């Protein structure tokens, strides 16, 4: 019990230090990847707090539902930032690839092959174009367990690539939530005034969140643990 309490305190301290590092970065211009999900919304509001100029970036991949697109549009409008939407409809989730090779069979169905190499490559393109030196991604701790290209190790290597091989040497990817649990992201979003009602998490096909899928359940638990009510689910 004592060890568990101590571990929680150490974890909390790591998170505070990590966030402190983000908050102490000098004001600059940033590109924020905005999917319309809860984590990316919190990341957008955090980036807006610590940067002078913020541009949102959304990727319209194959089969991306209109509710997700609308969520990103609403969030960008609410935050008062420009949203660049990039059409990449050749990019498919593994479950949408007909005759996908066997090695993709074991990954989660929402995995897009080579997703973050492509997304952050495109983000680097826009960062250079708009003169931003930060690219924000709202990945959280549990993402790295599911996707190898959402880990701290991946972004460390990607940043080395950006440092050494772009004309503007200063562009770097920042992932301020990468050590956060989902409930901590919700709590931070509450503090930042994120309009959670505009976000979308559900994997279902309906016009309203189903409340039953893995994403809905995870979201529900996070709000309960954060001690907040979720305006999207009422
Ligand atoms: Zn759902």
Automatic annotation (TrEMBL):
InterPro entries: QueC, Rossmann-like_a/b/a_fold. Its EC number is 6.3.4.20. It catalyses: 7-carboxy-7-carbaguanine + NH4(+) + 2 ATP = 7-cyano-7-carbaguanine + 2 AMP + 2 diphosphate + 2 H(+). Gene3D superfamilies: HUPs. PANTHER family: 7-CYANO-7-DEAZAGUANINE SYNTHASE. Catalyzes the ATP-dependent conversion of 7-carboxy-7-deazaguanine (CDG) to 7-cyano-7-deazaguanine (preQ(0)). This is 7-cyano-7-deazaguanine synthase. The lineage of its organism: Archaea, Candidatus Marsarchaeota, Candidatus Marsarchaeota group 2.
